[in-house]
Amino acid sequence: MTVQAVKAISVLAAVAATLATGDALAGGHGYGRSYDHFGPEYAYARVIDVDPVIRYVTVDRPEQRCWNQAVRRPVASGNVAAQTAAGGIIGATIGHILGHGDSGALTVAGGAAGAVIAHENAVRNGAYVETRAGVVQRCETVSHPFTEKQFDGYRVTYVLDGRHYTTHTDYRPGNRIQVPVSAYPVGRWGR
């Protein structure tokens, strides 16, 4: 027999001994050993039912609604323009008189002041009597509560040592699930 064959047989024998020891320690229940003496050991339990967990959540979805609205807008009548022009002429005349005909700047300033005063007076006295129909787009944001389904994992029922248990997982398990098992003797370290 070659050296390589002896090494291979030795490795296989060591693996078989480790597996047999682990199964004997687990008592045939599929219990695994933890490397932490004080931590839990694990068992594989048979899964008998898996149900998806769905929860309903209300969320707020804003929506912008727009519509066209008919409006009537006031429009300056020709009366306002006439009053503004007349005020400008009167103001320019007063400016010309005050400047004794020698100051063009005073004439222009008087015309501008007279036009502004006449325009404001016409508006204040309701010269905007004409209206025209128009369409304006109006918008508002409306909030709609909406209920939607959200996936929230799985409710898993499993059997371990003849008893049924239920747990919640984020994943869909197969036909077995690994569960922690605490098997401490009574009175050990205050337990």
What is the CA-atom radius of gyration, in angstroms?
47 Å
Q: What's the total helix number?
A: 3
Helix share bin: 25-40%
Oligomer: single chain
Which segments are poorly predicted (pLDDT under 50) over 5 or more consecutive residues? 20-36
Main sheet record:
4 strands, antiparallel
* Secondary-structure element string: HEHHEEE
Helix and strand content put the structural class at alpha+beta
Shape: rod-shaped
Measured by DSSP, the beta-strand proportion falls in 35-45%
Note down, in words, how this protein is organized.
The chain is of the alpha+beta class and 191 residues long. It contains three helices and four strands, in the order αβααβββ. The protein has helices at 3-26, 78-98, 104-124; strands at 41-75, 130-160, 163-169, 176-181. β2 (130-160) and β3 (163-169) form a beta hairpin.
Attribute tags:
alpha+beta; 191 residues; rod-shaped; four-stranded antiparallel β-sheet; 3 helices
